[in-house]
Amino acid sequence: MRLGIMLAPLLLGACAGSYEAPRLTEKQTAELEKALAGKVPGEKVSCVSMQPQGSFRAISGNIVLYKMSNRLIYKNELIGSCPGLTRGDTMIIRPFGSQYCRGDIARSADLTIGMTTGSCALGDFIPYRAPGK
User: Fold this and answer.
1) What domain of life does the native source organism fall in (predicted)?
2) CA-wise closest residue to 78 among 51, 96, 99, 56
3) What is the pLDDT of residue 9?
4) Fewer Cβ atoms within 10 A, N terminus or C terminus of the chain?
5) Is residue 57 in some structural domain?
6) What is the count of structural domains for the chain?
7) Hey, how many other C-beta atoms are within 10 angstroms of the C-beta on 77?
8) What's CA 103's distance to the chain center, in Å?
9) What does the pLDDT look like over 68-114, one tens digit per residue?
């Protein structure tokens, strides 16, 4: 019994640690740089409009790009990690309105077997725009 009491603070301390996002591989870094090449980052925003032409693309289990057009891409660093995204799983987002917002829950799912492979939340959106002519 004493051992359990003595270990309790250690176990709680382990849970209270901060989350550190996994580092990108060389391939992921190159893919991210290529996607954002020639674009200038702007101020982060908490929400973006859902657009019919918009599409999400996973760079890693914790970074996704939301492409609005060839001139505008939003980078989103997920809160937590959806590791299935790196294997090509589908990202499913449940927004609470007509916008994608920080805190919206996202899941990665393998649709071939019908299984959820991860759960995370959207972070802030950083716009990357092509400079004006």
Assistant:
1) Bacteria
2) 56
3) 45
4) C
5) yes
6) 1
7) 16
8) 11
9) 999 999 999 999 888 889 888 999 998 888 899 999 999 999 999 98
